[in-house]
Amino acid sequence: MTTASIQVRGIRKSFKDLEVLRGVDFDVASGSIFALLGSNGAGKTTLVRILSTLLKADAGTASVQGFDVASAPNDVRESISLTGQFAAVDEVLTGRENLVLIAKLRHLKNPGAIADDMLARFSLTDAGGRKAGEYSGGMRRRLDIAMSLVGNPPIIFLDEPTTGLDPQSRIEVWDTVRQLAKGGTTVLLTTQYLDEAEQLADRIAILHKGTIIQNGTLDELKRLLPAATVEYVEKQPTLEEVFLALVGETGETDSASAASTEGSAS
Prior knowledge:
The chain has 266 residues and is α/β, with parallel strands linked by helices. It has one domain: 3-Layer(aba) Sandwich (Rossmann fold), CATH 3.40.50. The protein has ten helices and ten strands. The chain has helices spanning 44-51, 73-79, 95-105, 111-121, 137-148, 167-182, 194-200, 218-222, 239-247, 254-265; strands at residues 4-15, 18-29, 33-37, 59-64, 67-68, 80-83, 155-159, 186-191, 203-208, 211-216. The strands form two sheets. Strands 6-7-8-3-9-10 form a six-stranded mixed β-sheet, with helices on both faces. It has a four-stranded antiparallel β-sheet with strand order 2-1-4-5, with helices on one face. Strand 7, helix 6 and strand 8 (186-191) form a beta-alpha-beta unit. Helix 3 packs across helix 4 and helix 5 (137-148) runs parallel beside helix 6. The longest helix is centred in the middle third of the chain and has 16 residues, at 167-182. The radius of gyration is 20 Å and the shape is globular.
């Protein structure tokens, strides 16, 4: 039986007269990608803040890596990493300097070696010496996730990680999330994008008006609707498919482009 890294039971939270969470229950299996899907205002970020000990629930219980978020917050914080909706990188520092800084703040040995390892892991080695402010949106988000993973926490919370990203950058982040799960990291992902949950998640929980209205695999959720009928129609490409075909999904990297530009300028 798969062990649950995150367990949530009856979590409730209100802000004055506004009831944001109204009894939320779910488990997240270790090493899996769990998507919390919901529209703006559904309570996704509030729930993540409770699980990461940044906010106290009004009622209910939650445990992360076996530690109760209310009674053992320090143990929870040592077990998790949180990446918010916007990349929290220092744009004045280089990518490598950002990673070295986090390693030093975590009091880890050999921060330079850790930084180099994370740059390689997230395909940012060539861009490591450039200021983070010069990175594309996808590169900045990958650096942000890399910074979150310094110290190898077993659980990572990704709160709407592709907000504001272009199609290519979204795919880069998706690939990064898949690699995290393959490496054994448990990922709790909040999103309002249906395709993101469909592409990434092992299980999907739909949060609506403060409660989980459905929770299951993609196949299980699809079976909630009537069986599909077979029709022969001409399939038209989506705008995203057209865009990616034109620009080349696996074209040259941002760092290679920058190097080429610099070479031409010199």
